Amino acid sequence: MEQFCQDKITKIAIVGAGPSGIYCALQILFGFKEQNFSNFKLLIFDKAQALRTILPTGGGRCNLTNSITDIKEFSKNYPRGEKFLYSLFSRHFNFDTLEFFETIDIKTYTQEDGRIFPKSNSAKDVKDKMLSALRKFKNVELVNKNIVSKDELKSFDRIIICAGSKGTSELIESFNQPMKPFKRALCALKIKDFKYPKGVSVKSLDGDFIFTSDGISGPLAFKISSLNVDKNFPYNVSIKLFDVQQLFELIDHNSKKSIGNLISTLIPKSLAQVIVDDFDKKAAEVSKRNIEKYSVLNLEIIDNANQGEIVHSGGVELNSVDKNCKSKIVDNLWFCGEILDIDGLCGGFNLQNCWSSAYVVAKDVIYSIINK
Ligand SMILES: Cc1cc2nc3c(=O)[nH]c(=O)nc-3n(C[C@H](O)[C@H](O)[C@H](O)COP(=O)(O)OP(=O)(O)OC[C@H]3O[C@@H](n4cnc5c(N)ncnc54)[C@H](O)[C@@H]3O)c2cc1C
């Protein structure tokens, strides 16, 4: 391949060996291999162990992605970044990711709710397989180093930052790249005047949640925290516990039974005992207004709790990068993964942002080198 015979070796730096960094590295390595190009050196910097952050995902099972097939439907699961992702997903979507994983021996299955997991049900297995695929290449090196300023990356021709959201502001600021402050999303929530039954799970019309010792956790709590990330505490939420028409029908057929017992057929009894003031009153004697009141749980959210999937909203502003996640401010600088101002709900959406943005960046980096 004569056209690629350059004297100078192209030096590429990836900062962050999390899911997005390692996936980006693999896409670069496989891409160059396909093009028969080897005149490069790829260094991946991480202040900690590579792929350490994938280990707790999906409760240790690693919810790799989601099976929704329509790009727009899929993108609706991102409170921030929805439209930006259309373009990334049109170039690398969930099925492309699964195809790639298959090539590195990560086989997957789809759960009933659409979440996709490795067949091994093990995030550690995903970590091991990704790193073992990486180790098969010669021109790549993992370097244990905390990068705090652009000055440390001066000698590189291409720089990709995929350092996630924890403690990366200083590095981004050193590039003068505009960014929104990071805020925690997808976390459990603390509730004012907590009086609910600890450990009880509820399947509400708005989603599933569980009462903790001082608030709520589970998919609905995470969604509430994500959708309200820019609100100041305290704020109020109303959760539709059950279909009130269903209760009216139950009352029509069981008017002599107590309202508490009828509501206990729709939600856990221990919760009904807390929210229904006239629990033992005959259902037919309870006012329509009260019956409607019991179908909704009003909560005052006073803080985030340190529990949950905990991704962060905020990060590199999307209007400061092009459609390939390349900086519009600094030459030869790209971003991928959670460091971008993109975050999704629970269900494999955050990792899919990592895979898709990493792929697009890798392709653009390859293009910028081979076609320069
Ligand atoms: C408990 C938990 C469970 C989750 N479960 C899921 C799930 O099942 N499915 C899903 O889709 N998402 C899940 N997520 C979210 C998902 O883990 C993240 O979106 C994803 O890890 C982001 O990947 P990333 O590579 O962009 O950043 P990170 O995973 O944060 O990786 C960044 C890497 O960069 C390194 N780094 C940071 N700064 C520097 C620096 N200055 N110099 C050198 N290295 C640096 C860090 O050490 C780290 O290794 C979960 C998150 C949590 C916390």
Q: Could you walk me through the main structural features you see in this protein, from its secondary elements to its overall organization?
A:
The protein is an alpha/beta fold. The chain has two domains: 231 residues, FAD/NAD(P)-binding domain (3-Layer(bba) Sandwich), CATH 3.50.50.60; 120 residues, no CATH class. It has twelve helices and 14 strands. The strands form three sheets. The chain has a six-stranded antiparallel beta sheet with strand order 9-10-11-8-13-12. A five-stranded parallel beta sheet has the order 6-2-1-7-14, covered by helices on one side. It is elongated. The relative contact order is 0.19. Bound molecules: flavin-adenine dinucleotide. The site of flavin-adenine dinucleotide has 38 residues, from α1, β2, β13 and α12. The site of flavin-adenine dinucleotide (FAD) has 38 residues, from α1, β2, β13 and α12.
Top CATH class of the largest domain: Alpha Beta
> Count of DSSP helices?
12
Give a count of the beta strands, DSSP E runs of length 2 or more: 14
CATH fold category name of the largest domain: FAD/NAD(P)-binding domain
Mean pLDDT: 95
* Structural domain tally: 2
Sequence of secondary-structure elements: EHEEHHHEEHEEHEEEEHEHHHHEEH
Shape: elongated
Bound small molecules, deduplicated: flavin-adenine dinucleotide
End-to-end Cα distance, whole Å, is 15 Å
Low-pLDDT sequence parts: none
Q: Tell me roughly what share of residues is in helical segments.
A: 25-40%
Rounded to an integer, what's the Rg over CA atoms? 25 Å
The major β-sheet equals:
6 strands, antiparallel
Largest sheet strand order: 9-10-11-8-13-12
Q: Provide the structure class.
A: alpha/beta
CATH architecture assignment of the largest domain: 3-Layer(bba) Sandwich
Strand content: 15-25%
Name the CATH homologous superfamily of the largest domain. FAD/NAD(P)-binding domain
